[in-house]
Amino acid sequence: HLVESGGGLVQPGGSLRLSCAASENIFSVNAMGWSRQAPGKERELVAAINRDGSTYYEDFAEGRFTISRDGSKNTLYLQMNSLKPDDTAMYYCLARRVTSTQANVDSWGQGTQVTVSS
């Protein structure tokens, strides 16, 4: 069970920090991440963090967004800086398990809306 928070309305150039509270130990999954979906567009990955702490960012997020986690709170974060109108989207938290047969099993939160507008 994943619950996102922290979205809202922000001006271009501003910052937001998204949080994703998990109901279980976040180190029990293989990876966690953030995806987003803008109106009329497909959902896309933003950033991910593996169990070992290695991170991945899509090109548009590199240098502006930072993914992190707090194991003591079972919470995933996404710090977003220098926000642009194109960042406007619903942001979803993702937890991925890889089964013994190498299948991906994904769990999703309900999302938090980020709107970047002046």
Q: Give, in order, the helices and strands.
A: EEEEEEEEEEE
Query: What is the terminal separation in angstroms?
Result: 34 Å
Per DSSP E runs of 2 or more residues, the count of β-strands stands at 11
What is the rounded Rg?
Answer: 14 Å
> What structural class should be given to the helix and strand makeup?
mainly beta
Helix percent band: under 10%
How confident overall, as mean pLDDT? Answer: 96
Give the biggest beta sheet.
7 strands, mixed
Bulk shape? globular
Helix segment count? 0
Strand content: over 45%
Low-confidence stretches: none
Describe the protein in words.
- This protein has 118 residues and is mostly beta strands.
- It is 0% helix and 53% strand.
- It is built from no helices and eleven strands.
- The protein has strands spanning 2-5, 8-10, 16-22, 31-37, 44-50, 55-57, 65-70, 75-80, 89-98, 104-108, 112-116.
- The strands form two sheets. Strands 2, 4, 5, 6, 9, 10 and 11 form a seven-stranded mixed β-sheet that branches.
- The radius of gyration is 14 Å and the shape is globular.
- The N and C termini lie far apart (34 Å).
- The mean pLDDT is 96.
